[in-house]
Each structure stands twice: as structure tokens, then as C-alpha cells.
């Protein structure tokens, strides 16, 4: 005679919840994607103007600059560090390059982007020298270099804004390139910026590097512990220089791209952008302790943060509240990733 084992009434629910929780611990991108989807539905129901083609195109366009910067910050955080110098590096590369284009004069786009990327690369390598060579704390190093670079830019190069009528025409034309254009019911023409493709191409490149190359594995290993990475046979010095150099190069490239998209070169721009980018990266599931995170999660974090802030603007909510939302996202997301890492460790 067999006896049936009766499970408690709440067992199926607990098993389902445990399975879902385990999946979210393994793939935080699922949680970020779900948050983005729910946020879109809620915001769209509150304000139907959210689904307007012009707003959606503007939302995707707003992802480009913060998204490329987030890729660089993600690399640094994966290694266990932090970078707050990238806005200063981006603006320095942009302003110096546009000044040079005007002085020569030069009206192409390839060489200027190479120049801006090179400036960012050199500045990023300076960070690496201090972080690895002098064993300094990344936060202090990048805070210092960012402040110094911005100060030198304003003091030695100048603080005057370069308006659209003085901007190189080829740079403006590049930033205005559109993938497609849609005509709204009111006759207004709205277009999707081609810079979205630039962002996607860079994101795919970083993803492939992290997933399929030795240097990508060394970045994750370094985030797990410097000594462990060294014992695994990775070059800690080479990895640190690669990370900060690539982060600086992405910042330099993004700075000139930013100038081409807004048609203005302002040396005072991007002040305070550190919080937005770091918030997006942490929201995307990148561990504040290093070693965990992905490009997909970072992109979803960027999209969610930009969508929330842009929606607050559509609903005419004061800028002060936008900063409160961003700061709260940093605290909550960092707390959740910290809890996740402790849970996985146990």
C-alpha cells in the first residue's frame, strides 16, 4: 500500500518564487527588462503622448551618448574600479578637436573622430598609470584627473562656446544623419537618428570582446580579485591599462559625437553626468564590487533610466525631482546588486 505525500498548500508558490528568484540572480537582465516594459506600459497609460513616434525617436536618440559612456564605465566597474573622469575627458576631446578643425581648417569627420578618440585614450592611460603604477584608489584618481582636465581646458584653451554658425559643416551633417523619417498626423516630420547604429555597433563590439576574447575574461577575473587574476595567468597591468585606455577612448569618441548631435561645442557641458551614467550601469545589474555584469544589462539600464527621466519631462515634473529619481535609482540598484552578490556568495 502506498502513501501519498501531501505538500503544504503554499509549496507550489514557494517553489515558483524560488525558481524566479534564482533566475533573476543568474540573469539580472531579466529583471531590468521587465522593469523597462512595465515602466513603458505605466507611463504610456498615464500619458499617451509617450507612444508618439517623435517621442520614441527622441528617446532612442537620448540613449546614444549616455549609452556609449556607460559602456566605458561598465568596463571599469567590471574590473572592480570606478570612473568619474569620463565627462571631463569627453568634453576636452570634443572641444580640442573642434578647435583644431576650425583652426586648420578641416571639414571631414574621420580624422576628427580619430583625434578625439586618441585624446580620450591618452587621458585614460593617465588614469591607468595612477591606478596600477601608484596603487591609488580609482575613485580618487578619476575624480582628480577629471577635475584637472576640465580646469586645464577652461584655463588654457578657453571657456567660450562654439555655436552652430562656427561649427564645421561636415560634423553637423554627420550628426544630423537619419535612418528613417516619419510624417505625423499634424504634418510634422520626425526622424530616427543614425547615431543609434553607432551606439549599437560599439555595444556589439564590447560584448564580443568581453565574451570571446582573453582580455575580456581577464576583466571579469580582475573584478573577482587581483591576486586570483594573477594566479590564473592574466596580466593585471595589461588589463588595467586596456580597461582605462578603452574607457577613455570611448569617452573621447562620445564627446565629439555629442558635439555633432547638438551642433554646439560647450566646454562647460556634461557637468554632473557622472551620476546618470553610473546609475544606468548599476541599474543594468553590474556589480559595484566587480566581476559581474553584461553589455545587454547595461543597455537596458540606460534605456530604463533615460525613459524615466524623459517621461518626467513630458509630464512637466520639475528638474529637482528628476535628480531625486536618479539618486534613488543609484541607491536602490546598488543595494539590490549588493544583496544579490551576498546571496550568490552564500
What does this structure look like?
With 346 residues, the protein is mainly alpha-helical. It has a domain of 223 residues. Helix content is 72%, strand content 3%. The chain has 14 helices and 2 strands. Strands 1-2 form a two-stranded antiparallel sheet. A hairpin with a 5-residue loop joins strand 1 and strand 2. Helix 3 packs across helix 12 and helix 4 packs parallel to helix 6. The longest helix is centred in the C-terminal third of the chain and has 27 residues.
Q: Termini, distance in Å? A: 41 Å
What's the SSE pattern? HHHHHHHEEHHHHHHH
Which stretches are poorly predicted, pLDDT < 50 over at least 5 residues?
Answer: 1-7
Helix count, per DSSP? Answer: 14
How much helix is in the residues?
over 70%
Taken from the alpha-carbon principal axes, the silhouette is: globular
SSE-based structural type: mainly alpha
The strand count comes to: 2
Rg on CA atoms, Å: 22 Å
Assembly of the depicted chains: single chain
Mean pLDDT: 87
Strand residues, percent: under 5%
Enumerate the strands of the largest sheet in spatial order, edge to edge or round the barrel. 1-2
Biggest β-sheet description: 2 strands, antiparallel
Amino acid at each position: 500500500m502506498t502513501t501519498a505525500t501531501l505538500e503544504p498548500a503554499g509549496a507550489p508558490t514557494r517553489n515558483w518564487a524560488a525558481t524566479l528568484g534564482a533566475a533573476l540572480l543568474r540573469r539580472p537582465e531579466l529583471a531590468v527588462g521587465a522593469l523597462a516594459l512595465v515602466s513603458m506600459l505605466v507611463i504610456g497609460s498615464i500619458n499617451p503622448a509617450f507612444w508618439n513616434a517623435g517621442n520614441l525617436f527622441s528617446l532612442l536618440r537620448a540613449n546614444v551618448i549616455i549609452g556609449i559612456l556607460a559602456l566605458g564605465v561598465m568596463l571599469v566597474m567590471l574590473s572592480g574600479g570606478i570612473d568619474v573622469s569620463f565627462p571631463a575627458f569627453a568634453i576636452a576631446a570634443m572641444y580640442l578637436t573642434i578647435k583644431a578643425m576650425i583652426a586648420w581648417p578641416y571639414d571631414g569627420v574621420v580624422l576628427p573622430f580619430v583625434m578625439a578618440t586618441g585624446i580620450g585614450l591618452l587621458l585614460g592611460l593617465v588614469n591607468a598609470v595612477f591606478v596600477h603604477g601608484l596603487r591609488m584608489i580609482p575613485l580618487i584618481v578619476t575624480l582628480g584627473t577629471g577635475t584637472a582636465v576640465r580646469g586645464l581646458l577652461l584655463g588654457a584653451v578657453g571657456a567660450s562656446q562654439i555655436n552652430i554658425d562656427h561649427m564645421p559643416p561636415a560634423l553637423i551633417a554627420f550628426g544630423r544623419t537619419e535612418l528613417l523619417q516619419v510624417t505625423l498626423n499634424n504634418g510634422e516630420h520626425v526622424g530616427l537618428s543614425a547615431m543609434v547604429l553607432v551606439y549599437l555597433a560599439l555595444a556589439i563590439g564590447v560584448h564580443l570582446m568581453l565574451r570571446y576574447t582573453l582580455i575580456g575574461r581577464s576583466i571579469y577575473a580582475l573584478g573577482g580579485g587581483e591576486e586570483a587574476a594573477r594566479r590564473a595567468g592574466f596580466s593585471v597591468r595589461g588589463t588595467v591599462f586596456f580597461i582605462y585606455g578603452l574607457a577613455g577612448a570611448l569617452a573621447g569618441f562620445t564627446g565629439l559625437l555629442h558635439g555633432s548631435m547638438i551642433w554646439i561645442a560647450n566646454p562647460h557641458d556634461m557637468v554632473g553626468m557622472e551620476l546618470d551614467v553610473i546609475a544606468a550601469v548599476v541599474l543594468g545589474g553590474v556589480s559595484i564590487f566587480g566581476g559581474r555584469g553584461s553589455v545587454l544589462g547595461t543597455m537596458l539600464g540606460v534605456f530604463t533610466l533615460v525613459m524615466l527621466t524623459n517621461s518626467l519631462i513630458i509630464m512637466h515634473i520639475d528638474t529637482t525631482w528628476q535628480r531625486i529619481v536618479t539618486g534613488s535609482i543609484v541607491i536602490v540598484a546598488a543595494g539590490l546588486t549588493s544583496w544579490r552578490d551576498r546571496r550568490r556568495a552564500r
